[in-house]
Amino acid sequence: MKPIRTFALALALGTSAFSAQAANVLVVLSDSDRLDLKDGKVFETGFYLNELMQPVKALLDAGHDITFATPKGSAPTLDKSSVDKMHFGGDIAAMEESSALLEKLELTSKETSPVVSLARVEQIGYDHFDAVYVPGGHAPMQDLLVSPELGKLLTDFHTKGKTTALACHGPIALLSALPDATAFTATLETSGTAKAEGWIYAGYKMTVISNEEEGLAKGLLNGGEMKFYPQTALEAAGGDFVSNQTPFTSNVVTDRELITGQNPASAPAVAAELLKRLK
């Protein structure tokens, strides 16, 4: 079974994998290596290195088990632009450590990736997992927000009050739990506004990369424009958005089972909050 590979890796990395406090954490990533923009333009993307690996390293160091999944079970793609020391507080050694751990995990290998599909996760049983984490990068905007498999998983976690953590663009995945996420996002794309009823996270305080931050970082899209911003989408669905005061500074918001981080700088704090919930 693929999760055992990660367990074995934890031992190899010298973590306390036999801790009596060990939990099983599911990390969900996008299958996509792109984001479709307006006017038929395409942005090559994936997950952000620090947003995945800082929480993963923290979880492994604490002795927890990790299972990696994508909707289809395809190997996820690293957004190469995220391999930048600025996302690690200028610490090149920390960046290289994350890159080395990612290589050991073989997550992005099309031949040997330990990633499983969300259908397989359902077969394993949602009750096997104590928490779920969704990192960012733009890729979740392509598929996770409308994934019925993810919506089913999140609804189960919500019903049972189980820890659900997401960072940067990751919180857009919460839309998958809408009664009709595809229709909602399609309306948002065409009209710029949409209304939702029956969203399980309506009224929750949450954060996500802000419209202001998206505007400041739009140069990354090489002249392209996103179909809509995640803040706009989550607010339209009924989320109570909470922003930082200074763009790109850490901001973590917790409400009931939900932990959300606003941007890449928030990943370490999301990891810390996640670890507190697993004790």
Report on the structure:
The protein is α/β, with parallel strands linked by helices. Helix content is 33%, strand content 14%. The protein contains nine helices and eleven strands. It has helices spanning 3-12, 49-61, 92-105, 118-124, 148-160, 181-191, 211-216, 230-237, 267-277; strands at residues 24-28, 34-36, 42-44, 65-70, 116-117, 131-134, 163-167, 205-206, 240-241, 252-255, 258-261. Strands 5-4-1-6-7-11-10 form a seven-stranded mixed beta sheet, sandwiched between helices. The protein has a two-stranded antiparallel ribbon with strand order 2-3. A hairpin with a 5-residue loop joins β2 (34-36) and β3 (42-44). α2 crosses α3 (92-105) and α2 (49-61) packs parallel to α9 (267-277). It is globular. Mean pLDDT is 93; it is low at 1-19.
List keywords for this structure.
single chain, 279 residues, alpha/beta, 7-stranded mixed β-sheet, two-stranded antiparallel sheet, 9 helices, 11 strands, globular
